[in-house]
User: Fold GNAT family N-acetyltransferase from Aphanothece hegewaldii CCALA 016.
Amino acid sequence: MYHPTIIIRSIQTEDELKQMFYLRWLILRKPLGKELGTEKDEYEQESFHIIALANQKVIGCARLRKTEQSTGLINYVAVLPEFRQQGIGTQMMQKLIEKAQQEQLKTLQLKARFQSVNFYKNLGFQETGETLDFLGILHFKMLIKLPER
Assistant:
């Protein structure tokens, strides 16, 4: 079975940006019956985007946004189903954590769907005990305190 080389890095081209937005919609919004365009928000320009590529095709994505002086928010973590369980999501998250540390952020927050909570726990995130309904889906607020570099 052929396994393409997976590259994880920031977006470098307009085509990669378009592919990333489409992937977000395909995985995170289309199953909820949401239209194209709902995968974007007003924070895209100020955020740091990471992608996973296989043969120049975006197969995974995640975003980090600074929300306060020392706090960041991770959103839109997605990997195509056929590429899951291969460590790609973990590698993307590790890159975002490294970026957060470079930016001297001390805490990262995220909202996890139920099926993703253990994935984030394995990366060191903890549940805060708060839940919220986001897009009609129960999400769990999670956070991680980052070690000083």
User: Anything to note?
Assistant: The first helix runs from residue 14 to 29.
